[in-house]
Amino acid sequence: MFTVNNLFLKTTVMNKLKTIIYVLLLTFISTSCQTVKKKTIEIKEGFVGMIGYGSLMSLKTFEQTLGHKYSDSIYLVHMTSYVREWSYFWPIDDPKFTSPNGVKYYAFFIQETDTIPFEGFVNLTISQKEKSKINCVLYLITQNEILKFDKMEDGYQKVDVTGKIEEYSFKGGQVYAYEHLPDPQFKVDKTKYIVLKDDVDLITDACDSIGMGFRKEFDNSTVPYSGQIIPHKNIFAKRGK
Question: CA angle 202-203-204, nearest 5°?
């Protein structure tokens, strides 16, 4: 005969079974998450990994510095503990803009009918920031080839980011990125610096060529520049006194 006590006992057993299944499921999920391992990229002897997070995401630009066609693998990755921003201020009176005979130049841009002087350019860079990450491109090149990028990335410092790549661990070599480390003594009036629209277009076009999702993630992980963004064709320079 089926009684209330039997019903109570059956309900209690079912609830205990549900609780056990729920606990086991949570344990399985937790254990699975903890045991998931990164894929490993083995970097061949004499090679290094290099991160492109701005203009070097453009394969064409990358190959121009490389000096030949790139034929190795290209990886879309995330670099953790970094934020991407327009914060490398490069003054016009930097020695790079001085002619061999010591003559300097001053620059201005045309906006509608106004001639507006400016003191320098703003370039894209990265800076360390916990709990942040940026999407970028990973190349594999030789140790001799990266010397070309050392020269091209003037004003930037090559930093080891081997342990900062979210999707992969690495064996046999290091991964590098270029970060501008500002001089703490350098004081700048940010309102007198501009971003070249041509640089912005180059970078965003490179993102678009990879895909809409990649471009959206780039926009979301890049601190926007609030100052003037001027096309190169509107910029002029004159010899200083």
Answer: 100
Rounded to whole angstroms, the Cα distance separating 223 from 134 reads: 11
> DSSP of the chain, one letter per residue?
---HHHHHHHHHHHHHHHHHHHHHHHHHHHHHHHH---EEEEPPTTEEEEEESSGGGSHHHHHHHHTS---S--EEEEEEEEEEEEEEEEETTSGGGS-TTS--EEEEEEETTEEEEE-EEEEEEEEEEEEEEEEEEEEEEETTTHHHHHHHSTT-EEEE-GGGBSSEEEESS-EEEEE----TT----GGGEEEEHHHHHHHHHHHHHH-HHHHHHHHHTEEPP-SEEE-GGGEEEEE--
Rounded distance between C-alpha atoms, residue 90 and residue 118, angstroms: 11
* pTM of structure: 0.80
Cα–Cα distance for residue pair 65/187, rounded to 1 Å: 31
Residues 6+ apart with CB under 8 A from 222: 84, 85, 124, 134
Domain 41-239 in CATH 3.10.490.10: yes
pLDDT digits (tens, 9 = 90+) for 111-131: 888 999 999 999 999 999 999
- Band (pLDDT 50/70/90 cuts) for residue 146 is very high
